[in-house]
Amino acid sequence: MALLDWMSDVAGPVIRGDGVLLRPPRAADYAAWSTLRDGSRDYLQPWEPAWPEDDLTKAAFRRRLSIYAREMELGNAWPFFVFVHDGKTLAGAVTLSNVRRGVAETGTLGYWIGQPFSGQGVATAGVRAVVGYAFDKLKLHRLEAACLPTNHGSRRVLEKSGFRNEGRARAYLKINGEWADHLLFGLVEDER
Question: Where are the strands (E) in 37-141, listed by range?
Fold first, then answer.
């Protein structure tokens, strides 16, 4: 994996991983994003917060981009879209959020992958690429992630990326309209 130089048309870093290219989302990604999310709705919704009624609209996407830009400017979050096929096909996203500095030097990893790309190692490649960026470029000390106990695919992604199961949190996040327990995972920089 190699970090590419900043590119003039991208408001953030571009990262290459094993068969994937990651970069921050931009307005031109709307059609691919909405098509992938809509086509993967039944696959994704059991694992995600309830989608707002306007979630796939262009206006909602613009709001999302505005939030992403502000969070990156503040250094609080780094959202990345994951592309395959030489960076031409959107496959999902990995976001490093809740970045805390000082005595913590930590962040939280979240990700989703479109159903057509499930089980192909794309999520693992994307997560590993962002892990490298978080530790090597952002100099974080620890990363955290969580998944539903029944989400075996997500759990495998974390385990294959070096995360360790650190326990269970009761009613941790509201998923698909219900408070749900989650397995908590962590990865410390010197253990990867």
Answer: 78-84, 89-100, 106-113
